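A favour, since you know our structure tokens better than I do. Go ahead and set the record down below.
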Amino acid sequence: MKYILTLLIVLTIPLLFASGQPRWRLLPASPSDGPGRHDDIFFINPRIGWVVNGNKKVYKTTNGGATWQLKYTAASYLRSVGFADSLIGWTGSLDSNHVLYATTNGGDTWSEVQNFPALRPAGICGISVVSRAVMYGSGAYFGSPRLLKTTNGGTTWSVTDMRQYARALVDCHFFNEDSGFVVGSRGVVSYLMDSAVVLFTSNGGASWVPKIVGARSRELSWKLSFPSPTTGYASIERFANGLSYYFTTTDRGQTWQEKPFIQNYEVQGIGFAGDGVRGWLGGWGGPTYETTNGGGSWHLAGFGSNVNRIRMLSDTIGYAVGERVYKYSRDSTVSVGFDEPVIASGFNLAQNYPNPFNPKTNIRYVLSRPVHVQLKVYDLLGREVGVLVDENQFPGDHAVEVGSERFASGVYVYRLVAGTYVSTKKMIVVK
């Protein structure tokens, strides 16, 4: 009897652990490519997936993120990725001269797609793969809104000018060849002054209907997430101070509503469990937040920085990318540590103020010990455009005044490296 009881205990312990609450963890072997971040991630099942980033690289895992292999280095900033199965996939970039790459062997090799019509995409920020034959791409976030489509696996392509519906496009999600959504912004001045918009088509992109337009200016709808056939979410990136929002639908996207988030946060990555109760929001220059009551309240999630994409494979398996790669699971083999460089105690990088700015803004940061500090500015293609600080500094509060005369109008990233502490935030120059 004692032997049987012991055996039952031994067999029960793993089952009890496996039935526990899943949580997000840093994948310790995931690639880290500074100064940018990983922009997109796609898994065809819990074990096989790909990551692409602004440093032009494609990584692949075949063991659920335990290890990663660099498979390809492209000629341009890679923004989006999608696969039909273990072999057929595409990755899109922000360079209109090298806009799309395709693979037929699971990402081991890639070829640049060249057979576009005269109207080329300006950039592919979002990819939605319906099947081996049907794929949609949308972009770009900075203007020239266009919809890319193939119905024969890339043998031929169509590109639709979307300017009558939007000023900028970011992400897309299609349920089938005919029905789907794109998100972006619409307005009359510039994408930095527009309102966020969700557009729907029921005829394969031949025509579009706005399902919701944000109530404020200086916003851009950024990422789509449909954890179930009926429930969907769209993040809203806000280019001004004030309360942040996101969109949600519970009727397959036929009606949408705005929900409040927190103050002064540029929401980008968004993901929810299928029940709509547990969800996560991430964005530029900040940590990830979690809700356990359907968005009624939010608290720090304890993982991730600069999270741009959250993909849920089920209510217990998900992946997210930002400065690193993160996994949502009950897997006991994954490190339970957080991303220490981002949350190192005593160090802090603040959002510049004012933002947007002209002619001056201030960047403040706190150091907890003597350390060599680098504070640099990059454009959204990852190119270094300014060095603000590069020296040893003492502990305490520090501030750097930045003048708009150093930069053209646009969106920039500033990155603080202080020993093992690394943090990135976004600033906007308006002239």
Q: What stands out?
A: The CA atoms of residues 242 and 413 lie 20 Å apart. The two ends are 81 Å apart (CA to CA).
